[in-house]
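Reminder to self: tokens first, then the designed residues, so the page reads top to bottom the way the pipeline ran.
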């Protein structure tokens, strides 16, 4: 099975080709980098509009060059796209492109939930069977585990996503978007002997980042060294995620943890999670960075599994959903044959 996928929930205008036979995933991405401030929905949509034709053309050329069959046949078996969650104007552009591609190539359309793709890519690249999944992305933060036909949300942020929270702090400091990598670099240079006293908010299986962001901004305004604030911020936020991930492993009895989402590129977060898993005898897996940040590769891989399970969409039913939750998705592909 070969799938062409298009992703565009926020900043990444991305297209990919996945070949389930060779396991090759070709990804082409054009990132929106705001000149100042954070991600502006209208500017993100303008970027998507401008960048999607080129990335799709590159992926399609790759599909045509690598197809093994008569030139008269379509170079892929299906077209997959992210239906949500994400910014409505971006999602609508990507869905329009995906519908047009499916109709032109005369292949089925597959609608993929972006958050489920963030976690399924970790299951795919690890071959873990039933892991707990920590999605640490820009606009979201969830703990999920599969049970009875759905990915159940075991815990989640009660306010902003984890990456967005970090980005808000860096905007305040005057650093350009995205802030996550800059916080990671600054934290590595911290020289303070002790962590700053920032709020740590975990309630059961849920967590909150807004208080810690305000406190971090106030600490910086109060004259604390920015490196020390970044270090304390990372330690607190990631310890909250590690605590809840550990509780999820303990309560579900699962012994595997996978990480997903752009914040998963942070080495300190990966280190903390690996240490926590090792201490309790669980296995930990984080996919390669190209599969952690938003990318169409993860949409293509899950799209292939959904296609193999017959989980395709009629064009008339293919509208996008900016608030699409992972637990709204009937999981059709786990018992189906491998693509
Ligand atoms: P979602 O997937 O929820 O729609 P998103 O589209 O914003 O979120 P992702 O690509 O998953 O995107 O994540 C982007 C976020 O990852 C940004 O907030 C960015 O600051 C953060 N990030 C990137 N690299 C790092 C890093 N090294 N450390 C911490 N955060 C990082």
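Designed residues (339 positions):
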């Amino acid at each position: 099975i070969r799938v062409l996928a298009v992703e565009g929930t926020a900043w990444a205008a991305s297209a990919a080709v996945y070949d389930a036979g060779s396991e090759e995933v070709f990804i082409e991405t054009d990132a929106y980098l705001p000149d100042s401030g954070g991600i502006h929905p209208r500017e993100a949509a303008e970027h998507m509009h401008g960048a999607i034709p080129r990335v799709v053309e590159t992926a399609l050329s790759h599909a045509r060059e690598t197809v093994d069959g008569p030139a008269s046949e379509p170079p892929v078996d299906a077209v997959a796209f992210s239906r949500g969650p994400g910014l409505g104007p971006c999602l609508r552009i990507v869905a329009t492109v995906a519908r047009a591609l499916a109709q032109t190539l005369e292949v089925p359309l597959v609608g993929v939930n972006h958050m489920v793709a963030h976690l399924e890519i970790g299951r795919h690249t690890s071959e873990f069977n039933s892991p707990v999944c920590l999605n640490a992305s820009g606009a979201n933060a969830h703990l999920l585990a599969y049970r009875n036909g759905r990915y159940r949300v075991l815990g989640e942020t009660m306010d902003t996503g984890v990456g967005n929270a970090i980005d808000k702090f860096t905007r305040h400091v005057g650093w350009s978007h995205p802030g996550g990598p800059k916080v990671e670099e600054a934290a590595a240079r911290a020289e303070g002997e002790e962590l700053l006293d920032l709020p740590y908010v975990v309630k059961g299986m849920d967590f909150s980042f807004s208080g810690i962001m305000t406190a971090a901004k106030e600490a910086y305004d109060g004259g604390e060294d920015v490196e020390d604030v970044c270090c304390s911020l990372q330690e607190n936020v990631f310890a909250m995620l590690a605590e809840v991930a550990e509780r999820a492993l303990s309560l579900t009895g699962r012994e595997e943890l996978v990480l997903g989402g752009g914040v998963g590129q942070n080495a300190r977060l990966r280190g903390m999670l690996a240490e926590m898993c090792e201490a309790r005898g669980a296995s930990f897996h984080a996919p390669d960075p190209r599969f952690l940040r938003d990318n169409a590769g993860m949409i293509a891989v899950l799209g292939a599994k959904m296609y193999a399970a017959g989980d395709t969409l009629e064009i008339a039913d293919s509208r996008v959903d900016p608030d699409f939750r992972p637990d709204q998705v009937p999981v059709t592909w786990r018992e189906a044959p491998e693509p």
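The two ends are 6 Å apart (CA to CA).
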